[in-house]
Amino acid sequence: MGYHSCGQSWRVFIFSCILLTSPFQLASCNKETKGEEGKVTLSLYYETLCPYCANFIVHELVKVFETDLISIVNLRLVPWGNAQISNNSFVCQHGPDECILNMVDACAINVWPDPKIHFKFIYCVEHLHLEDKHNEWQSCFEKTGLSSEPIRNCFEKQLEVRLELQYADETAQLDPPHAYVPWVLVNDQPLQGDYQNFVAYICRAYKGEVIPKACNTELSTASSEVANPKFNNPNVCHYKGLF
Asked: What is the pTM of this model?
């Protein structure tokens, strides 16, 4: 296929012609894209081979789709995480395989903009990672019933690099800066160490009249105040300058 298989030892080079192409022309992953009116925006900044990101996606974030929560959520996934750019290369915290899979996810989000579609593919990849089988990520096309052709075309056009450059810039502009991943925001407010309590934050942020059943359950069992988002959570991959 047009992309590299995982397991190869290589650095992801950014050629000058791509660096000179403005990534902000790629509207499909533009942060300013508005969700449906009244919905709560849930943003996840992550990297594909951080085990805590994988666990969050597979066991926690999936609740958005397993319940009726998706009816009030505008979900945004940003696959860059703690990656950095050095000597015109992408350098990823968990090695070159992670760089490849970050780009695969970026392409998936671009070619399948509906969260219900790209999430099931990303979920499949992260589930394989939890089983130490991320090298088998291409099996997710068959498992999800999605064609590999759009992803191959994305790589053949070198769109994956430009998408990642935009995600890198967006991540760099976070305020406060992300300290680790998963880094979760609800309506642009970082949950920091309390990210696993994201459902409660969504339900409290929602101002609509029709309350999802997921929120009725959450609000009836949660305390009156959401926990302090600044408490330490050991289930994260910390950002470290060039690792």
From this structure: 0.85
